Amino acid sequence: PPSRRAGCEQHSSGSVGGARGDPGAYPMLAGALRGRPELIDLCRDNINNPIADNPQFFIHCGQAFQQRGEFPEAERHFLRSIAVGATPVSHYTYARLLVRTGRTAEAEEQYRLAIDTLTDPVRRRTIAAERILKLHPERLSEALAELDAALAADPSYEMARGLRRRVVARLEGAEAEPSPPLARLSPGRRDAMRERLVAAGPHPVWLRAVEDAAAVELRRELAGVFVEAGWEVREESIVPFQVKPGVFVFMADAEPPAYALAAQRALEAAGLQVAGGTDYRAYSRAMRERNPDFRGFDLASDQSYVVVIGRQ
Prior knowledge:
The chain has about 300 residues and is an alpha/beta fold. It is about 55% helix and about 10% strand.
């Protein structure tokens, strides 16, 4: 059967410069650069380049900005994807951003456009189930029925399999006892953390969390303490893959600046068990050379460290 992957299966071996003048090279190069800072530069440089007018290229860009928490830029690229040649993927990836930003009526319309234009019944049922899960959680049994029908036709379709696991977990959770409120930092721990940060002086911090409600809440709360202490929060984004439970500080260089160490000590003063290490940029580069599928934390050229919050 034809592949149902939304992205491009090929990776370009050319440079960013090599893509210029070849419209087909842009989505391939964007796919090869997924998860790397160079993709952001490629997207910013080509948002108005008519040679790059390929919907899949702008979908890659929109997803990259969304993962960084840069929602206006993500929306700009998703809309560009729709403008240059809307595909079902253009619509449902944009719908996911609209859900994240609370614009549910617009998300409904984008999901409807995706479902109406999908010709593959397996993908159509899967996206219909996703729409229910994200926008109508009171109708989860309908989503489960859609996914069961999709998997009856194609038991190997991984998107449907993963979505079904989420729906079943939600259904089981709805029948369980209500979860307790998310754990928060106590006032005393917030004060201890803030005192350490104020003593170190204002500096930048980069914060990332996995897509887990408790992790995102902890990231939000930590960002608030950094801001209260006068620090600059340069990034609050989502990690696009799973990270083991805990809080981690990955420092770019073998000899990190004093403020990166101060940020780690402040987190420890808040009662958090912090792991991580130094020289992460070199480690990540070496791991990618050995394994092209290695998924690490990319650090921008001016970024000295990153705080990563795994599942809580």
